[in-house]
Each structure stands twice: as structure tokens, then as C-alpha cells.
Please model this.
Amino acid sequence: MSPTTQNPDSEKKTYRAQAERAKTGETSEKKTYAAQAAKAHDKDAPGTAPVAGPVDKGARMVPLPSDGIVPERDLYSTPVLECRHLGIDFGGLHAVEDFNLIVGKTEIAGLIGPNGAGKTTVFNLLTKVYQPTRGTILLDGKDTSGMNTARLSREGVARTFQNIRLFSSMTVEENVTIGLHNAVPYGMWSGILRLPKYWVSEHKLHERAMELLDVFDMTGVANVEAGNLPYGAQRRLEIVRALATGPKLLLLDEPAAGMNPSETAELMENIRKIRDDFQIAVLLIEHDMDLVMGICEGIAVLNYGKIIAKGTPAEIQGNPQVIEAYLGSDATKEA
Amino acid sequence: MDFLTNLINGISLGSIYAIIALGYTMVYGIAKMLNFAHGDVIMVGGYICFMTLNALGLNPLIGILAAVVGCTLLGICIERIAYKPLRQSPSLTVLITAIGVSYLLQNLALLIWGANPKVFPSVVGGSGPIMLFDGQLVISMETIVTIVVCAVIMVALVLFTSKTKMGKAMRACSEDPGAARLMGINVDTTISTTFAIGSGLAAIAGVLMMSAYPSLVPTTGSMPGIKAFTAAVFGGIGSIPGAVLGGVLLGIIEVFAKAYIGTQFADAIVFAVLIVVLLIKPSGLLGKYVPEKV
Amino acid sequence: MAKETTAAAVPTKDRLLKALTGNLGTYLIVVAFFVIIEAMIAGKSITSAFQGQLVPICVYVSAALSLNLVVGVSGELSLGHAGFMSVGAFSGAILSSVLMDAVPDPALRLLLCIITGGIFGAIFGAIVGVPVMRLSGDYLAIVTLAFGEIIKNLLNNLYVGHDAAGLHFSMTDTTSLGMTNGTVVVNGPQGAVGITKISTFVAGTLLVLFTLFVVLNLMKSRSGRAIMAVRDNKIAAEAVGINVTKYRLMAFVVAAALAGMAGALYAMNFSSVVPSRFDYNTSILILVYVVLGGIGSMRGSVIAAAILTVLPETLRFMADYRMLIYAVVLIAVMVLPNIPAVASLMEKVKEAMPWNKRTTAEEGGAQ
Model:
């Protein structure tokens, strides 16, 4: 498969060319995938999808007709996320512009780019912290326009934050319990009057919280105040809390920031494990290239609010435009 | 003609609110605190002026000067003793301390001057009221002086904050005290200066207010303080033109409400207007909305 | 990570200690206070002035607890809490007058009045809360203050009477009520008049316990955690699917209902109540109790409200100086711990105390 490079100046044209290429297909094999993908995309037929088993590492990435790549195994399902021409302006400045991205149902995708490229802004658009100025976001094929942040959480988008946002005066377990807010609901009166529903639900909440904490081996610190945890543990707790909401798509904003190499390696394992166990998609922003290249199947590179490259880790690593974006134009010339 | 009279009275009352609101807004802008004791500084200013005029029998100008100097010193003292140790404290702690200072000033005044109202002599001497349209429109000298003083103060403050070194330091401190300190600005001095200016303005407001509404008791400053605070929020707290606009509008609304709807509902209407404005424009008329960065 | 132990592994003695430092202890303090006072009344070792303070103490403790739900648990500064008390007080007083003949049993009538006060408090809480919840921080504070003043101003102009035909309302004067042979219940600035005193210390204590029960149980439930999550981090709370407005409003309305109940109890303790009794000074007074007791600490609110309601009375021998001393104490309590020299001294004293070598578990986990 050829590296999916684009010239930002003629981006739309290249997109079309790429889509065209995907449609006509360079090999017969690809043609079949594309046709299947288009079919699966048109009418989500869960019956035809293969039973999701343990995900194979280094799955083959295949292009979709609508400009994007997904792991081969996700071809039969509606992509969990599809952004079409997404854009937002901040007082005349196009902070994000013509952002197109498809994330497969069980894909681990990466969003990278230099500082200030607009990566976190994309997350804020995906979670509707900001309302997009243009474009659409489809979540599992469903248009999310008009939804707010809380609604999107209920629809299955969970996130962590670059600057950690825990409920710091509450315990680790309470943080996870709050993540389970919509998973185990009971009303205010049940709580105040301690009705049977309260006891049943609280018991369930405790069990579920402990199960989730166990994913990151954090049951031992369940009663510690979240603000008193070490930095790395706070980042892990944010992931657990996000998982508690029962997401289809987990957005991780620099999950490895401030972690040492061994913690990062452990985190990589855990992200994979989360994807395999929960069968969800992960989209992560990260500056640690070892992590990104190590676990991401598809990567999108953002610069000045625009996607300058999409592809597999190998393709991105060899892409001259990406190198230029990170290191400046001199570096490409020398290379 | 009634309309015009009410309008002028409203602007005059609003000018007093505006001068008090300026003190509120400057202190809030720089120290991010609601200085609930500000209204009581007005009352102290009133009593100082009253003492110099009545007990010492001095010239009104000296009375005003004494009030301004006294309140400025009082403002600096309050800031140094009560607020400075609380720079890093939660805003509620500072708020309660300000309430404590307010109680303290009121009760000190009660001990010194007693609960009986003092009849304040007007500091605006000389000519009588101006008559226009065959005496149908009567404008008192107090009204004119109040409006002029307010306008002068606003222009001076805008120039001060935009042109002078100290004014720029104030703006820097209100934006980001940490960065201002790194730039070599003495944040403590700057905050003290802001309190000094705010308290000096409160003294002027006190003297003007007492000249127009001459009944002086220890709780005199309380309600105008609340109204001026409302005015500052109304105009967009932290903004100098906003405080003046908010103050004048509040004064006009109050006078008109009294004249056309009924005295007893005036306060309710003033506060209702504030609520409506804040619901439509949550940062006040001229305030800036700063969203939280995610 | 010192507290890694699970509940089962904690020794019984520590668990008992934790229970006493936690919610159970707070209930016990109230009950103990009640028993001691009752014993003192039985032994006639209590002044009549202090006895007159008993119901107000309960009222202010309940009011402080409910305000702490807004300020401490929900993290919103409300300066109009007394407004909801006045709504409760006036609706309770009106009902009491209407039910005078229908419900002869004073205890039952008081209960009905308190419930009505709570309902009206909740209604006004919702009326005020819906617009107010669009704001936050100091803007929310000023708008709650404004609403409190509006409520006071409207009550100052409210005239209510009842006769055989039912209730009559007017906003101008008593004559416009159009009654021939009725009773005036609310008479403008003179407030609610002709109230039969039916509030008792027992009822007050029960109200405090009820308020504690509601607030503490709410805090330790799904809704309470959602409220605290919004307080700690609004954006993160939204991101985990919490309806921020709903839970901020919930805290506000529950607090308003509880304040309304306290207000009704207050009104039933006097023969008349004026609207200006519940102005912003009262709101601030309750806020002072909350802050001095410790924001988010319900036990602190109980103790601070009780002591500070009694304090001005106990200082009465100092006559004119008592409010001055009150002010100085207030400033000192706020400022002194923030002066480094004093703070380090306090830390040393604290460390020397034997009980601090154990646990510092705070109730509800609030700040």
C-alpha cells in the first residue's frame, strides 16, 4: 500500500484521488475489501460480522472508500467514529479545518502532531466541549449534532484529560463510582431514604468499581484520596474512570505524559488489554513516539489544524511531510 | 418635565453608585475578592467629614480632604492586616474576613458616634439650585457636582490605568499576578495601592452621598455598598467604564422605579433588572467572558 | 498510600473510632446536646434567656446544614439563603393560622406547617435556581443575593388574610383584601402577625436530625457524588455523563426546601415575624456559621451554628462591645491560621494532641 501523503494545498483533490484509488483498487484483493467496506458501511449488518475474538496484533490496515483506513477485522462493522470535514474557528482562526477521520470498531488509533497543532481541540470537538463550526461527527453511524458532552458520554465517548481532571477531594473508588454514574442509576430519594434499591445499587457499584480498578492493579489504593496519588497513578485512574462509563470509543489525551519508560511500557500493555477485553476503539494523542508507533494501528498527523498524513506507523515514519512538520523544512532537505 | 427631573436625579444617584462601584471593581479586578467592607468605608468617610465640619468647624474642602486621607489610610490598614495574609486562601475565607471587617467598622462607628442619625451639612456650598424652564426643572448643585465628579474620576482612572506605570502594573497584576511578579512588579504594593485608591473613592462617594441624602448612621454604607456591588457586576466586574455604566443605569432604574411603579418595589426592580441582564449576558454589560481552558 | 487496608481488615476499635468521627458521631452530638439541655431544664439550671434561644439554635443549625449543602457540597456561593427561610416562615405562618381550628393538636399542626414551609422553599428554590444555575462563581453569589432581597421586598408588601371564604391576597394594603370578618395573617412590613407559638425544642432537635439525615444520606449516594463531582471538576463531570445543571439544581432545591422548613419552625416560635428578619445579613450570618464550622463539614456546621447563636447572648454582659468582639473574633479566626508564625504554632499543638496520632478521617470526604 502506498504512503497516504497529501499536499495540504490540494488536500481535497488528493482525498478524492485517494478515495478513487481505494474504489478502483490497485489489487483485486483490495477491491473486494473496499466493496465489502462500502457495503458494511451502507447498512450496518451485525449478523454478517465475524465474531470478535482476541485482536491480532499488527492487524492489516485497509483503505476505505470514504478516505480512511481501518484494521481488516473492523471492515464488517460500522466505524465507531467518522468525522467529515470537521472544523472549528476561534475568532477567525481556523483552529481545526477539514478534519476527516475514521476509527474502526476495535482500532487503536493515534493522533499526533507538533505542539499547538489542534489535537486537544479535536478531542474537545469529539466530546462537544466545543461545538464544531462545520462538519459532522458520526458515532457508530449516528449523527452527534446537537448533543452535549454528557449526552456523548452516554452515547459511548469517554476521555481523559491532558491536564489531569480527577475529582481530587474524593477517593479513588468514588472517582470510579462517579464514572459508573449512568451505568448503575438510582434516584435521589432512594439515596436519601436508603431504600432497598440504594443498597443493591451501592453493592453493585462497589463490585464494578473494584473490577475496573483491578484492570490497573489499583484496588489497593481504592480508599486513597485521588489528589494524593502519584502522577502516573492519577493518569491511570483517569483511564479507569473513563472505562467505567462503558465507552465504545476511548479518547486518551497524552496518557503517558510524565510517566517513566517502564510505566509507559506497562501502559501500552494495558491499552492493548483494554481494547482486547472490552472490545472498544481507542484514539490517543501522544508525544511519546515509542508508544504511538508501538500500539497504534492507524495514525493521523495534524499540523496547523489540518491532517497532513494518515497511515500505518511504518508509513507515517517514512513520510517526508511529517518529518518536516516535526523538524522543520531544513531536515527534509538534508534527508 | 418630571421625566427629565427623574432622569437627572437618577444619573446623580447613579454617579454615587458608580464611584463606589469603581472601588469595588478595581479591588475585584486585582485581588479577585468581594470586599464587603467597602460600603462601610463610605460610612467612615462620611463621619470623618462630618467631624471636621461640625466638631472642628473647618472648611468643607478640608473636610473632604480629611475624609479622603482618612479612608485611604483605613483602606491600606484593612488590606495589610486582614486581607494580605489571605492572598493564597480560598475566596470564601477572604469573603468572610471582609464581612468581619464590615461588622467591625459598623460597630466601631456605633461605639464612637452612637446610633442616632447625624444630620450631615452639605459640602456643596455657594449658589442655590439651578432653575430651568421657569422653575419647572430644578437641579440642585449637589446633583451637578456629583455627576461632574463622577465623570472626572472615571476619565482620570481610565487614563491612570492605561498611561501610568502603576496603572499598567495594576492591569498586569489583575491578568496574571505570577507573571507580573516575574516581570519585576511588586504585587503587594500594587494591591495596596488599588485598595488605597478604592477607599479614597469611597470617601468621596460618602461625602457626596451624605450631601444629597443627609442622614448619617453606622449602617449608612451597607445598602449603597450592596447596590454599588450590584452595579459593578451589572456593568461587568473588573471593567472601569462598566462600573460607571452599571452605576448610572442602576441609579436611573431605581429613581424611575420609585417614581412610576412605587417606592416599596424599587429595590426588587433594581435587583430583578440585574438578574435579567446577567442571564442574558452572564459577564455583565461590558465584561469579558473567559472560558475555562480544557 | 497509607490507607490500603480494606474495611474488613480494619480492627474493630478503629472502625468504632471512624464511626464516631464520621456521621454517627454527628448524630450523637445532637442527641447528647438535646439530653444535656433537657436535663438542665428539668434541673432548672438554665436561664430563661437561654431557654428562649433553644429553638433559634435549632433553626440556625438546620439552616447552616442546608446552606452547607450548597456551599460545601455543591461548591456554589449562595448569599440569599435567608430568602428561602422567609418563604418557609411565611407559608408556615399562613397555614398555621388557617389550620388553627381544623387541626387542634399543636404538634401535628407544627408538622404540617414545617412540611408546607419545605414545599414552598423547594418551589422558590426551583424558581430561583433554574435561572441562577446558568451562572457560576461570584456572579451566582450576587444573583442569589439579589433574589433574597427581592423575596424580602415582595414579602414586605404582601398582605394576606383569611375568612370563611378562604385566603385573600393583596400587594397594596389590608383594606384591599376585601374581607368583612376575617383575620389578617400577613400585614406588609409588620410581617406575619398573630402567630400562636407552637415550636418546641423537641421539634427543633427533630428538625436538626432530619436535616442531618437528608444531607448526610444525600452526600453518600449517587446523586451526592454527582453533586460533588460537579464541584470538584465540572468538565470532568460532564465528560463522565453527569447532567451538571440537574445536580447543581438538585443541591440548590433540596437546600432551599430544608431552609424553608427551618424558617417555618422559626416563625412558629414567635408571635410575629417581620420580613426584614431574613435579609442578606441573615444569609451572611448563616454563611459565617458554615465557613467557621468548615466548608463541607456537617458536624462543623452544627457546632459553629450552635455556639455562634449562643455567643452574642453570652457576651451580653459586655453590652456595646459584644458585636465588636464578635467581629474581631471572626477576623482573627479567618486570618490567624494564615499567618505563618501562628500556623506553625498551631501545627505543633495539633501534633502534640494524642488523638491526632490516629486518624484524620473526615466525614463525607469533602474538603
Notes: The first strand of chain C starts at residue 159 and ends at 163. DSSP finds 14 helices and three strands in chain C. The interface with chain A takes residues 1, 3-6, 213-214, 217-218, 220-226, 228-229, 232-233, 235-244, 250, 254, 365-367 of chain C (CB under 8 Å). The radius of gyration of chain C is 22 Å.
